[in-house]
Amino acid sequence: MAMSRRQRARTFRGVQYGVLVLAVVLIAVFADWGTIRNAFFNLDAAATQFPEILSTALVNTIIYTGLGFALGLALGLVLALMKLSSVGPYRWLATIYIEFFRGVPALLVFIALGYGVPLAFQLRFDIYSTAAISLGLVGSAYIAETLRAGIQAVPPGQVEAARSLGMSQSRAMITIVIPQAFRIILPPLTNELILLTKDSSLIYLLGLARTEYELAKFGREGLNATGSLTPILLAGLCYLIITLPLGYLSRYLERRTGRKQDEGLKVTA
């Protein structure tokens, strides 16, 4: 007899569970747990990482990310307004900038600022400025597009109402449009912050003093010192301390924004 759709789905789901159980059993039987424990869960190697992995590496990662995001947000807002400008050259310059920094790997930006600029112009930045500028340049290109989409999502009637009250175009943009746009783009903006957090790991390529280590550099030095992957695992967990709350915040904001939009549609209807 031919199986119904529900029976086929149930059989397929059972096969998937069976494959999963078989894989777990095979790993449990044949894995070299002693080697795995020494490679990933070496308590002696882990003990050497504290407290500096938290007090230095994690703190520096947050500082580098925060500085880069602040610069990227400010520059991204300017670029978004330029791209929406009625002045052609502003739109062209903003488009060229955004397409360039969206298309170039962040690694090249770090190398250019860390090594290229000092060699070409004898202009040297400290590590915090290098991190802020590099992350800000890359992040601003993505943030600009997010902001532009948010500004365009604000109903045109909001601007028209503000203009009818005697507000200028610039005042209406600053006091009416941009605040509403930020509420719309908070979820994708939070995702951009997560990406910048991970991109901050590229700063280790520029050579850091121990007090300037971020998580990736700290984990790599721990790997070299202990010969165990435990420091890398700890560095990854520290990244999760930053990114998981941001991810939950992003999803919460998405749900909240969706509910408000649904309520607005009901009111309109």
Automatic annotation (TrEMBL):
Example of a GO MF term: transmembrane transporter activity
Domain ABC transmembrane type-1: start-end pairs: 58-250
Presence of keyword Membrane: yes
GO annotation (BP), single: amino acid transport
Source domain of life: Bacteria
Keyword Hydrolase among record annotations: no
Protein name: Amino acid ABC transporter permease
Species whose genome carries this gene: Prauserella cavernicola
